[in-house]
Specification:
- The chain is α+β, with helices and mostly antiparallel strands.
- Strands 2-1-3 form a three-stranded mixed β-sheet, covered by helices on one side.
Length: 129
């Protein structure tokens, strides 16, 4: 029996076969990512301002909320979290941190904020905003 410690507590994984371990871990990781996204969405403006030093307009904010909701409801990308899968396979007890989750979430936010900057030109300054 393997154990995985997350922000939601300690989860047990039965070791019937590697595929079953992966399915259980995928569910645990999705729950963990969902919890983090819910926390971010609760204070989304503050998070974006703190992390990216910008304030999205209402249209951007709606699009970002939609993208975060889609990410929250999507499957875990095995390539993104491969190191966690391998760690759980090798060890009986694993602590799941937040770093990989925040990297995935921040990459999505950054892409959305950058995309918005490309298409909103401010003629006075001659730069994109």
């Amino acid at each position: 029996m393997k154990t995985v410690k997350t922000a939601q507590g300690i989860k047990k994984i039965t070791e019937e076969d590697d595929h079953y371990v992966s399915l259980q871990l995928q569910s645990i990781l999705q729950d963990h990512r969902s919890l983090l996204i819910d926390k971010i969405m609760h204070n989304l403006l503050h998070y974006i301002d703190y992390k990216f030093n910008t304030r999205p307009d209402l249209k951007q904010l709606d699009r970002i909320k939609l993208m975060l909701t889609e990410l929250k409801n999507s499957d875990i990308n095995f390539k993104t979290y491969q190191t966690l899968f391998e760690t759980v396979q090798r060890h009986e007890h694993t602590h799941i941190g937040n770093a990989l989750f925040y990297e995935e979430i921040d990459a999505l936010l950054k892409a959305n904020l950058s995309l918005s900057e490309l298409f909103q030109r401010d003629g006075r300054k001659g730069i994109f905003q």
